[in-house]
Amino acid sequence: MGDMVAESMEKNLDLSCFEEMDPSLAEGHHIFYEREVPFELRSAEGSEAPQEVGALEAIKVKILIHGDDSNPTSVRCELSSETNLFFYYYHELDEAGFRHLQEGQKLMVDFSEYAAVLLRMLNHCIKEPHSHLAVFVMHRDGSARLDFIQNMEYKFVELLSCQFQACSEELVRQQITYRYNVVKVCDFHVSFRWGSRTVKARIVDAVDVQ
């Protein structure tokens, strides 16, 4: 009986509803990929070359798709940081934008494969950080560039370069509010689970006494 009461109470805490409040999904996108990836963060001043060596930081990467995974209408990539809540950049392409990227960088994949290509490159940076690098170069005007680089021992080869833009202050504010609310609910959920064990133990004791 104690187990049934605790399980019934816990089922009423539906955390999935908070996923629908994610500002990233407001325009009809769905999450294709979400992981923390080691990035090398560099700053550039105007037209000057970026720093030679940047700071290594775990960046949360979220790939979002609008439409079907196999036939997307747009692919969006969002970057955020747990250490700097105001760090929020995005990269988004539709098929026309991808065609421009494809021609400029001589990519041998179609737009339908673009999200999967990003996923593979990000996972390489996680699994093989010494040979696969994600270098993120930020400019004062809010523009940025993500370079996927492979260390071939004798030289560095740039595999793909993606243009990013800092999110608007309004979107950053929405994201901070959303993340704060999720943390509060998760903390409450942990406290509830601990408390439910205590309640369950008391219910079992009461049943045993009867």
Concise overview:
By secondary structure, this protein is of the alpha+beta class.
Q: What do you see in this structure?
A:
By secondary structure, the chain is an alpha+beta fold. Helix content is about 40%, strand content about 35%. The protein has helices at about 1-10, 15-20, 95-105, 115-125, 170-210; strands spanning about 30-45, 55-65, 70-80, 90-95, 130-140, 145-150, 155-165. It has a seven-stranded mixed beta barrel. α1 (about 1-10) runs antiparallel to α5 (about 170-210). The chain is globular, with a radius of gyration of 22 Å. The protein starts with a helix and ends with a helix.
Distance from first to last alpha carbon: 13 Å
Oligomer: single chain
Query: Looking at the structure, what is the overall shape?
Result: globular
Helix coverage percent: 25-40%
| Unreliable segments of 5+ consecutive residues | 1-6, 198-210
Largest sheet, order of strands side by side? 1-2-3-4-7-6-5
Order of helices and strands: HHEEEEHHEEEH
The Cα radius of gyration reads 22 Å
Helix/strand class:
alpha+beta
- Number of E strands: 7
Largest sheet features: 7 strands, mixed, barrel
Tally of contiguous helical segments: 5
Estimate the strand proportion: 25-35%
Q: What is the typical, i.e. mean, pLDDT?
A: 83
List the topology elements.
Blueprint: H1 2-11, H2 16-19, E1 30-44, E2 55-67, E3 72-80, E4 88-94, H3 95-105, H4 114-127, E5 132-139, E6 143-151, E7 156-166, H5 169-209
Parallel strand pairs: 1-5
Antiparallel strand pairs: 1-2, 2-3, 3-4, 4-7, 5-6, 6-7
Helix pairs in contact: 1-5
